[in-house]
Amino acid sequence: ATRDVVLSRTPEQEEDRTVSLQNAAAIYDLLSITLGRRGQYVMLSECLERAMKFAFGEFHLWYQVALSMVACGKSAYAVSLLRECVKLRPSDPTVPLMAAKVCIGSLHWLEEAEHFAMMVISLGDEAGEFLPKGYLALGLTYSLQATDATLKSKQDELHRKALQTLERAQQLAPGDPQIILYVSLQLALVRQISSAMEQLQEALNVCRDDANALHLLALLFSAQKHYQPALDVINMAITEYPENFNPSETGVTTGQTPGALGLLQRMLQVVLPVAFAKALRTAVDGFLYTKGHMPPRSGVKEPPLSPAAVYLEPNFYFLAEDELKLAGSCARLFYLPDQGLPGPRTQCAVDMQEERC
User: Fold this and answer.
1) For residue 199, what pLDDT band results from cuts at 50, 70 and 90?
2) Which residues form the Tetratricopeptide repeat protein 7 N-terminal domain (predicted)?
3) I need a labelling partner for 53 at 20 to 30 A (CA). Which of 97, 194, 222, 239 fits?
4) Distance between CA atoms of 74 and 196, rounded to whole angstroms?
5) Tens digits of residue pLDDT in 49-80
């Protein structure tokens, strides 16, 4: 780097300005690597944003700023920046793909996602290996639009378009396990369970230990009322990914008492942050509903559970299944010094336990 930076945009200074920009870009690249490894994405985005006024029309810095905004959670701002990046380099398929991913994921801007996915598809052969990903993004967009649609005819039409688009992606990249997984998921959504199982087997042949594929396999087994194979798959998934609570929730809601109890015990052995509390409440509610102990919650926004209350819901289930020892273990957790006084529902559960003992 040098202090003799040329910022003038006069034609005679173009070469010197290019050299200065290359030096600045190299420094910002090193800064991105350093701060990115430490998770300091907000600081990185602020540093890169300050450089924007000196980098008009420079794709690399614009794209770096957009990626930093995605990383720090400023998704709407990131999409605006990516839209400008598309104008700067319209032949690059990775930019609209990233924009479509952000629109589908955190923003749920499905019309925008469809627009960006169509940009990739419109490139045709120029998109190269990214063309199947464009069809994948478009298929996912149609599938999500079908979920949001209210009319049955509109849902059926969008599901049909989603399946056709995903199958086109699979034709272009027949060995891509991610595409095969989403084809299987879409087949499951339109109730073609047997075809979904066949597609999922192909995905598992390519990537045997994928968590999402194992979770979907368990759901398909459960849809066919093959509960024991579903629990076996879930146990396998939890062994590989002990901190992934999606398979655990599915296993608890299968309706198989011994297996569900074992899964609840394994979930309770994990140190649960508050972020997982809602997931655990959903899992236990689903299992209690299958046992007829309580009505399901529908459309009710539940407040977040405290770390102590995470142990409350399984306590009621253990009592209902005559597992008094496990219920007592759950109840005693409320009397730890760092958890404070128990709430009324906790005290009620303890009284129930003492009465039954």
Assistant:
1) very high
2) 1-48
3) 97
4) 36
5) 887 877 777 898 899 999 999 999 999 999 99
d(CA 344, CA 335): 13
- DSSP run (H or E) holding 81: helix 75-88
Cα-to-chain-centroid distance, residue 76:
18
Q: Tokens at residue 296, please?
A: 């399901």
Q: What is the pLDDT of residues 270-312, one digit of tens each?
A: 434 444 445 545 555 555 555 454 444 444 444 444 443 444 4
Cα 177 to Cα 179: distance, rounded to the nearest angstrom: 5
**Structure-token pair, residue 120:** 């990739």
Q: Please state at what angle helix 59-71 crosses helix 14-37, rounded to 10 degrees.
A: 20
Question: Which of these, 341, 338, 317, lies nearest to 329 by C-alpha position?
Answer: 317
Q: CB 46: neighbour CB atoms within 10 A? A: 12
Mean pLDDT, all residues of the chain = 74
DSSP alpha helix (H) spans, 209-274: 211-223, 227-240, 245-252, 257-268
Enter the tokens of residue 159: 């599901």
Mapping DSSP onto H, E and C, the string for 286-298 reads HHHHHCCCCCCCC
What is the rounded distance in angstroms from the CA atom of residue 49 to the CA atom of residue 47?
Answer: 5
pTM: 0.68
From the CB of residue 294, how many other CB atoms can be counted at a distance below 10 Å? 14
Question: Which ranges constitute the DSSP H helices of the chain?
Answer: 14-37, 41-50, 59-71, 75-88, 94-102, 110-122, 131-148, 152-172, 177-189, 193-206, 211-223, 227-240, 245-252, 257-268, 277-290, 312-320, 324-332, 344-356
Distance between CA 290 and CA 292 in Å, rounded?
6
| Whether the Cβ atoms of residue 35 and residue 43 lie closer than 8 Å to each other | yes
For residue 154, CA distances in Å to 121, 137, 146, 151, 322 come to: 23, 19, 7, 5, 48
The helix (run of H) or strand (run of E) holding residue 132 is helix 131-148
Contact 293, 326 (CB under 8 A): no
The token duo for 150 is 């209210």
* Rounded Cα–Cα distance for residues 199 and 122 (Å): 28
Of 267, 282, 278, 199, residue with least CA distance to 234: 267
219 CB contacts (<8 Å, ≥6 apart)?
A: 188, 230, 250
